[in-house]
Amino acid sequence: MKFKRVDAPLILVVIALAAILSIVLAVVWHQWLFWLVTVLLLICLGLYLNASWRGKEQIIDEAIKYLHLSSDAQVLDLGTDQGNVLVKLAKHLAIPGHATGVEIGIKSDQSNKSLAHAKACLQTAAMADRASVQAADILNLPFNDHQFDGVLIWMTLHKVKPTINRARAVQEAARTLKSNGTLAIIDFKHFDEYQKILTGLGFHDITVHQCGVNGWWGGPWLSTKILLAKRF
């Protein structure tokens, strides 16, 4: 049996331990309030698992549809991680179309494992002929200006710190995008920041889409959104 990978499993462990502690306190102290807390924590746990196992897949598919990729498009998956998004992009393409995945910040064994996993994922899905993955610095991407028809950034920018570096990362992603291309940012915070940067870069068509319950990482306070940006 193959178990699904959980995003940020430490958060899941914390929620689960809090629920267990609440159950123990409810039994020992006979307080209904702890049972209420337990129920709320279990709901949070369920929402988190839904977002990680099911919701994110639907959100990624939705974002790819927004890109309106032709079969011969050149597309960039920035922050490819395990390669699942890259495979989804590649399935929309046919040679000479190509999806390029970038694993950012290769500075640890874990990051190197992610890069190897992404390459293996492409091989398993038989997509190595229309997709590739490489390591790169998100602040200095090794690509030409106006190279890609679409750029997709999945849950990556919020990890880039400080603010000035996030701005630089958005600028780099925009630099590689063709004048008629679409940039899609999927994340759960800093959207006002992204919109301000992109407006300054000449993007006039910027929209933010709520992803609903499928994007709730434990609750509405950590809600996934899709930002779409076009210059025209």
UniProtKB/TrEMBL annotation:
Organism annotation: Limosilactobacillus allomucosae
Record's protein name: Methyltransferase domain-containing protein
Presence of the UniProt keyword Transferase in the record: yes
Record key words, sorted: Membrane, Methyltransferase, Transferase, Transmembrane, Transmembrane helix
GO terms (BP aspect): methylation
UniProt superkingdom: Bacteria
Listed Pfam families: Methyltransf_11
Keyword Transport: no
GO MF annotations, alphabetized: S-adenosylmethionine-dependent methyltransferase activity
Record-annotated Methyltransferase type domain positions: 76-185
TM annotation in the entry: 7-26, 32-51
